[in-house]
Design a protein that fits this description.
The structure holds two protein chains of two kinds. Chain A is mainly alpha-helical. In chain A, 69% of the residues lie in helices and 5% in strands. Helices cover 37% and strands 24% of the residues of chain B. Chain B contains eleven helices and ten strands. The chains are: A mainly alpha, B alpha/beta. At the A-B interface, α8, α9 and α10 of A face α3, α4 and α5 of B.
Amino acid sequence: MKHEFLDHHSCGHSFFHHMHPGAKLVMVVLFIFTVVTIEPGQERIFLPFAVLLLIGLLATRVPILHTLAKGLKVLPFVLMITIFVPFLKEGEPVWNLQIGPLMIQITDEGWKLFYNIILKANIAIFSVVFLNLTTPFHHLLKGLQSFGAPRIITDTLAVAYRYLFVITDEKDRMLLARRSRLIHPSLSLQWKSLSQLIGVLFLRSYERGERMYQAMCMRGFNGVIVNLDEYMLQKKDIAAACLVVLTALLLRICMSA
Amino acid sequence: MTPPAVQVNNLRFSYPDGTPALNGISFSIAPGERVALVGPNGAGKSTLLILLGGLLQADGAIEIFGSSVIPKNLHEIRNKIGMVFQDPDDQLFCSTIFDDVAFGPLNMRRPAEEVRQRVAAALEQVGLAGFEHRSAFHLSGGEKKRVSLATALSMDVDILALDEPSSNLDPRTRRAIIRWLQKCNKTLVIATHDLDLAYETTNRTMILQSGRIMADGPTTEILTNRELLEHSNLELPLQFQQTENR
């Protein structure tokens, strides 16, 4: 079965695709950090950052509609968190609604804060989308390792990502088999079969884990996964990361002045 | 005198729940021999392969090229015997094919350049040169199986232990695996239900049933003996059934 992989398009051939994952990670994190420090009321500063990000996204040569779709999937979650900000922040009321004893009002400060958070969130989301579109997941983990992330975490994440799709396939096959045998089932029967299915899936995953460990042992595993570091940090990677970060900092300082 | 590739004496093994898997089996495999382990489900074929690699502890003795399969020798043993599991998804646990094929040599502390050469050579041998940077979940079942073989080959082992090498393969990929096994010049131990594959790739066959060796002899004799096969809950390879039906 085929899945839409989380890092679809990440094996492309743009400059950013070939950039060292560690350098790219630092570049994106510092870019986001520069943007999130913009205070409410300074929204005009977001425009050059958005243009910079757009240039970066276009340079990845990934279809822009795919990029937009990916980023916009996250936006509802940001809205869910921020939707009450205009109503809760104290300040100058710009809109009132009286419902019985309940007074609902939007304040100017609340509205500006909401607007600010949405813009920040969008730039941060699309920056992460940029990272995701140009970096396979395992490269990202190696980037984290090069900054001293604990191997136990990066190795666990790498194996989890590898087996996520294997287990999803197994789950899909089991659901198909269940559906083929459940004809107009009662709700209780549906829940019962679903809980059994989850239990069996857990046991199968556990057994697979054991077999995988045996396969590792057969190839000399002694507790530490050893990798060859294929990603040499090159001068051009450092130069590109510095260029982007310095541009962002200059924009931030110049436009705030 | 060269020691046998595999020497097994009075091997007994029961699973933790008490289910007996092997009931005192003994045999010897000479270097370069190609042995098929056949038998019905639950006969103990896969368990025997696992025990040869020292992945479980059993009563009795196993020696690989003269070295006892005991905890202190495991590093040496696993340099000599490579195992290919039935489900390639158990064997391919790394993010890329390169990492998977390099996993063994890296654990054996081989230098980086040698590891790269071994990976390239192993993938070349299974006809998948250039697949280094792909992920296992982007491969077909047949490709995964061949990469699984490459993970054992890159360790430059003397013995290959294969568990159901033709399971879940389409006829064309199965044929490719058979041709590869016919050309392979290592000691082979193949646990399989595919009797046609066993007939075409091995020169000795052992029939296991209920944890015992029911028969051990040349493949051409064992796999053409209808009575013996039926007595062991097996049947003639398909190619001979078709000949009989004509």
